């Protein structure tokens, strides 16, 4: 008689295959877990390295920002000093301006005109005086227009003299000074 196996070999074979499948599945899941752990460690190290580089760059940027602020402060100080130097140079150039104005006015006043008051108001001179004739006054205004120091002569008023000095007329004139120093804040020197 032939050999007949009555044992449930198919079930055992199926169980063995199932056990092999579960073992392979367990090994693969363990390998995947280990691989994920290794990837996590690798990327955390990469992240730590990048964070270290970012912190280093941030500290260097803050140092450079501080240096930039110092440079800006130095530039502002330099600009202030340059303005002061320019103002001092202008003042140095115009230190004799009062004397020059008096010399210029003395040379421009023709005979027959008598100055009673010269007042400086900012960049302008207010001149009061007496004149024997209007022609002499117009000659004085022409002389002022030819001047290198004075300009824009403007005759404000001419008043005929009183009874006792009927020959002389009172006049008021405004003249601008060309060489005039102005500070930045609008103050006039």
From TrEMBL:
Keyword flag Nucleotidyltransferase = no
Query: At the top level of its lineage, which domain of life is listed?
Result: Bacteria
Listed transmembrane segments: 21-43
Coiled-coil annotation reads 64-94
- Pfam families xrefs: PilN (PF05137)
Does the keyword Ion transport feature in the UniProt annotation?
Answer: no
Q: Which InterPro entries match?
A: Extracell_DNA_Util/SecSys_Comp, PilN
Q: Which UniProt keywords apply?
A: Coiled coil, Membrane, Transmembrane, Transmembrane helix
Its GO biological process annotations read: type IV pilus assembly; type IV pilus-dependent motility
Protein name as annotated = Pilus assembly protein PilN
Q: Please give the organism.
A: Psychrosphaera haliotis
């Amino acid at each position: 008689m032939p050999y007949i196996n009555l044992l449930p070999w198919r079930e055992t074979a199926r169980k063995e295959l199932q056990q092999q499948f579960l073992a392979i599945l367990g090994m693969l899941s363990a390998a995947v877990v280990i691989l994920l752990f290794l990837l996590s460690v690798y990327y955390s190290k990469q992240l730590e390295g990048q964070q270290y580089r970012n912190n280093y760059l941030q500290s260097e940027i803050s140092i450079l920002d501080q240096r930039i602020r110092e440079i800006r402060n130095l530039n502002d100080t330099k600009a202030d000093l340059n303005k002061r130097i320019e103002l001092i140079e202008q003042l140095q150039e115009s230190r004799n301006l009062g004397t020059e104005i008096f010399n210029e006015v003395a040379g421009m006043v023709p005979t027959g005109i008598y100055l009673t008051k010269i007042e400086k108001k900012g960049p302008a001179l207010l001149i009061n005086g007496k004149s024997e004739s209007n022609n002499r006054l117009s000659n004085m205004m022409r002389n002022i227009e030819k001047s290198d120091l004075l300009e824009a002569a403007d005759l404000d008023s001419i008043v005929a003299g009183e009874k006792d000095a009927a020959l002389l007329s009172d006049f008021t004139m405004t003249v601008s000074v060309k060489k005039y120093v102005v500070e930045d804040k609008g103050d006039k020197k």
